[in-house]
Specification:
Layout (H helix, E strand, L loop, with lengths): L10 H5 L29 E4 L22 E7 L1 H8 L2 H10 L1 E7 L4 H14 L5 E4 L1 H9 L6 H8 L1 H9 L1 H7 L9 E4 L6 E5 H7 L9 H14 L27 E2 L4 E2 L15 H15 L5 H4 L5 H9 L5 E4 L3 H9 L8 E4 L12 E5 L1 E9 L5 H13 L3 H8 L7 E4 L2 E4 L3 H5 L23 H6 L3 H10 L5 E4 L6 H27 L6 H30 L3
Parallel strand pairs: 2-3, 2-4, 11-15
Antiparallel strand pairs: 1-3, 4-12, 5-12, 6-9, 6-10, 7-8, 13-14
Length: about 550
């Protein structure tokens, strides 16, 4: 039997907080990957979508793939999401074609507070017809009778979702609770890696041919050449970054990983950046990074944890750094500002490396499905309303619905050439429009509605530098895809306790070797591994493996 989130009664705990329910807030629109610009407070307000359509629920739908007859329902969402949705041309077109109107109730702009507000609304019986919550909330409340079991609704009213479940058994397993019900559908996310990006103008001036960089050794030689050429630039270090410097594991084949047979390294809450100290390449990574540190090839303040994001940006703009390994949109962002510092400024994206045998080394990604984005239906909604909701979602699993959500309307936002879709709207122009103005935007990492993902469309609607590199590099050959796992309450609690101190200890131990405050040799490295195993590293791997096997019935 699957050991998913156990069904627990939390009504008593919630009742203790009922007297101090917090008010909902509102916030502005921003990039999904960026923090909210403001965290306002105020009364919860209802914000109806302003579909510019005369279509009503009683009229016949003109949408191919839509199997419903229109209607209206209410949905509570984070205010940021509502603002995004209200500006989307394709979403308004979907409401027009289907005759469905969603009346959105704005919540707070702070995502974690949204989940708290869902708790409070379930307790007080004030939840809208539908909402978005965490998967564990969906399963707990669903099993207690607060949410519809979506499985019968899908079987009867949603043929396209049913086909998707049949074609993706791992997804069906992931969203199916231990009682056999489906209480929430998870949104499909972008499985993207980080890019290695570099100042092309620096490389050209220093005589470094990026096409010759195939391995980590080639990369190290390029760093040395850059360091020598820019030796007179104060505080110049070729390799710079922000946050943790322990992000190069994919260049040394020491990523954390998991399967039905084994779990290696930090996977819980570290899918994109987890490393495995027991991997063969881990010692080589530390040895190489120490070489970079000793030779002044990597910023020592970054290694020491004293280099902020602002420091990193300034160094890369002002010419005190040439290379970074970071979020995939960062190269384009640096180029936008870079010309203000240097007319020759030109950030480009490097190919991923191969190992010494010529095999591609894979960069980690996040999971395919976002377990903080579960769409649920309030059990107090009428069956007709539940039918309207599931059929509206189902439309976006049809061919027409997917095309509309990912490409828009032919002749307006895209056209077909030689059987391939191409956008005819400008990414820069559409995203430059002010809040409140309608736009053709296709940023699928922003939540709009639960739907499948068109990776080609997502990367095609981007800056040219990002689009070209993503379509070339974000492929099966180059990516190690993150895997969704459901942890039981006991597993989550033990892993959270273990990793809170264990990860910091591992990081500190590795940094000590890199900085030379602890001598790096085989004996000291083995002692470090033994110390981490005794501190819970092995136990962490056991818990992760058990959770994987329980999630996928292995």
């Amino acid at each position: 039997m699957r050991n998913k989130k156990k069904v627990i009664s939390i009504i008593v705990a919630l009742a203790m907080t009922a007297a101090s329910l917090t008010a909902c807030g509102s916030g502005g629109k921003g990039a999904e990957s960026a923090p909210a610009a403001a965290e306002g407070t105020g009364n919860t307000t209802a914000a109806s979508t302003e579909a510019e359509s005369n279509t009503t629920g009683s009229e016949e739908s003109d949408a191919d793939g839509y199997v419903g007859s229109g209607g209206t329902y209410t949905m509570y969402l984070r205010s940021t999401f509502v603002d995004w949705i209200n500006d989307l041309e394709w979403y308004k077109e979907a409401e027009k074609r289907t005759g469905v109107t969603v009346e959105y109730q704005k919540g707070t702009s702070v995502e974690n507070d949204v989940y708290t507000e869902v708790d409070q609304m379930v307790l007080s019986n004030t939840l809208t017809d539908s909402t978005m919550c965490k998967q564990d909330q969906a399963n707990i409340y669903g099993a207690q009778g607060a949410f519809y079991d979506l499985k019968p609704l899908i079987d009867e009213y949603a043929p396209h979702i049913k086909a998707y479940l049949d074609a993706n058994p791992d997804y069906e397993s992931l969203v199916t609770n231990e009682d056999g019900s489906i209480y929430g559908l998870l949104v499909e996310g972008i499985q993207k890696g980080s890019f290695i990006f570099y100042r092309q103008d620096h490389f050209d001036k220093a005589g470094v041919d990026v096409s010759g960089i195939k391995t980590v050794d080639d990369f190290t030689e390029a760093l040395r050449t850059l360091k020598a050429y820019y030796k007179d630039v104060p505080n110049y270090y070729p390799l710079n970054g922000r946050e943790t410097p322990l992000r190069f594991q994919s260049l040394f084949n020491c990523n954390s990983n998991i399967s039905a047979e084994e779990s290696n390294g930090f996977y819980y809450n570290n899918v994109e950046l987890g490393y495995d100290i027991h991997a063969d390449g881990a010692y080589t990574m530390v040895e190489t990074m120490k070489k970079w540190y000793d030779e002044g090839l990597i910023n020592p303040e970054w290694i020491a944890g004293a280099f902020s994001e602002g420091d990193w940006e300034a160094a890369m703009w002002e010419g005190r750094g040439s290379i970074s390994f970071d979020f995939y949109t960062r190269p384009a962002a640096f180029n936008l500002e870079g010309k203000n510092y240097d007319p020759d400024y030109n950030m480009a994206i490097m190919d991923f490396f191969n190992d010494t045998d010529g095999n591609p080394m894979k960069v980690q990604t996040d999971t395919r499905y976002n377990q903080k984005r579960a769409t649920v239906i309030n059990a107090k909604a009428s069956e007709e309303t539940a039918k309207t909701i599931i059929q509206f979602i189902d439309y976006f699993y049809s061919d027409e619905g997917q095309t509309l959500a990912n490409w828009g309307v032919e002749g307006i936002s895209y056209e077909e050439k030689d059987g391939q879709k191409e956008y005819i709207v400008s990414y820069d122009e559409e995203l430059a429009k002010p809040d409140g103005e309608m736009e053709w935007s296709f940023l699928s990492d922003r939540f709009t509605i639960c739907k499948p993902l068109d990776t080609t469309a997502f990367y095609s609607f981007n800056s040219e530098i990002v689009k070209d590199a993503a379509l070339k590099l974000f492929t099966d050959e180059h990516l190690q895809y993150g895997i969704n796992i459901i942890y039981s309450d006991e597993q989550s609690e033990e892993l959270a306790t273990l990793t809170a101190s264990l990860k910091d200890s591992c990081d500190a131990g590795i940094i000590a070797f890199i900085r030379g405050t602890k001598e790096l040799n085989e004996d000291n490295w083995k002692a470090f591994l033994d110390e981490m195993d005794a501190a819970g590293y092995t136990r962490m791997e056991e818990l992760q493996l058990a959770a994987y096997q329980n999630t996928y019935n292995d």
